[in-house]
């Protein structure tokens, strides 16, 4: 009888596991497309904060080149998004990671115009201290807007640092490490765009999608 009871319970547990697996799989399949679309919309919203609709006429999410892992602080390959008017690339939005934030890595997207100036910078993810380092978020402070229009000539390369280090950029009261990391990452993105100008801005529409980084750094 004990053996029969164990067998019966095992069958019930197995049946329960199968039913649970089917339900989870069904839920995933039914929501997968909606989740992907929501993620796509959130991603597009972030891009449009940097390059608004009136500046371009393509879908940036579908017009990308690949930035290789090991570049711009990235741990894995990520897409850079090309903004075009007609066939001409007018700006690119680069992914970047500042690995040296106060509480860890800071994930960014950095827009660079064709002329080498900053179109905009946004922080996507961070773990900085609330009330101090989190002022890199546009919702907490307008500090991040101070990069708009800047370039490798404005300010001069030696001034791409926070004022505490003799540079041109403000730091936060009581928090220097976080803005220092973002300034360095933004300068790195400008240098990458300069060194890869032909690959980022010289590829015709339709030829750029999922183009792999050819190692031109």
Automatic annotation (TrEMBL):
- What EC designation does it have? 7.-.-.-
Domain FMN-binding intervals? 101-193
* One Gene Ontology term from the biological process aspect of the record: electron transport chain
- Its membrane topology: Single-pass membrane protein
**Cofactor dependence:** FMN
Select a single GO molecular function from the record's annotations and give it: FMN binding
Q: Which residues carry this modification: FMN phosphoryl threonine?
A: 176
Q: Where in the cell is it found?
A: Cell inner membrane
Q: What quaternary arrangement does the UniProt entry report?
A: The complex is composed of six subunits: RnfA, RnfB, RnfC, RnfD, RnfE and RnfG.
What function does this protein fulfil?
Answer: Part of a membrane-bound complex that couples electron transfer with translocation of ions across the membrane.
Q: Which family does it belong to?
A: Belongs to the RnfG family.
User: What's the name of the protein?
Assistant: Ion-translocating oxidoreductase complex subunit G
Its source organism is Parahaliea aestuarii
